[in-house]
């Protein structure tokens, strides 16, 4: 399932990933760049909370058996869309920003504890946090909502794929999984309390 890499390469990738993830912005969830497809495509790459959550889901997928790897991204995207619809219907809920930031800490813990966490339990948590992420974005959406969410979901899927690909190489050693988990968790704590 995992391709073998040298310990030096694994350590270098782990340090690079954890250093990049530890950087914190001034705001956890900056506003959208507008509405429409381009804004939807851009936001997952520009909102640190969303970027890290999408990468974490892809990384989690890399900890699963090959036949199960697709499940976490599929659950996340479905629940993200459902949460977006709920957010459009109910409007923004301020407390969700804390849940979104806190989700990074839980997703990081899932990565660290991946060998001991069953697939169903992991998918349940992933789906729950996807609902929160989707609701937060749906509550803020305006303008060309269908185009925005089409771009948003497509970009999220790309980030899942990137996370999965990185995880397949990085997790050849437990050190890589720990570094990724600690980096994402540290960034989540900084966003939650920053």
From TrEMBL:
Residues 1-28 form the signal peptide. The keyword Transcription regulation does not apply. InterPro entries: HupE_UreJ. The chain crosses the membrane at residues 44-62, 74-96, 102-131, 143-163, 175-193. The keyword NAD does not apply. Keywords: Membrane, Signal, Transmembrane, Transmembrane helix. This is HupE/UreJ family protein. It comes from Novosphingobium mangrovi (ex Hu et al. 2023).
């Amino acid at each position: 399932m995992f391709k073998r890499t040298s310990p030096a390469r694994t350590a270098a990738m782990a340090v690079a990933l954890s250093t990049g993830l530890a950087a914190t912005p001034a705001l956890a969830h900056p506003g959208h760049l507008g509405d429409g497809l381009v804004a939807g495509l851009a936001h997952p790459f520009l909102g640190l909370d969303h970027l890290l959550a999408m990468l974490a889901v892809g990384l989690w997928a890399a900890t699963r058996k090959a036949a199960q790897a697709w499940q976490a991204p599929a659950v996340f995207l479905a629940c993200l869309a459902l949460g977006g619809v709920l957010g459009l219907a109910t409007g923004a809920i301020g407390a969700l920003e804390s849940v979104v930031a806190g989700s990074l800490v839980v997703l990081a813990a899932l990565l660290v504890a991946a060998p001991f966490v069953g697939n169903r339990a992991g998918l349940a948590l992933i789906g729950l946090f996807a609902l929160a992420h989707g609701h937060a974005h749906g509550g803020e959406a305006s303008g060309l909502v269908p185009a925005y969410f089409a771009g948003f979901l497509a970009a999220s899927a790309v980030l899942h794929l990137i996370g999965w690909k990185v995880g397949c190489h990085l997790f050849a050693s437990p050190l890589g999984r720990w570094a990724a988990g600690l980096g994402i968790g540290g960034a989540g704590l900084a966003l939650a309390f920053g």
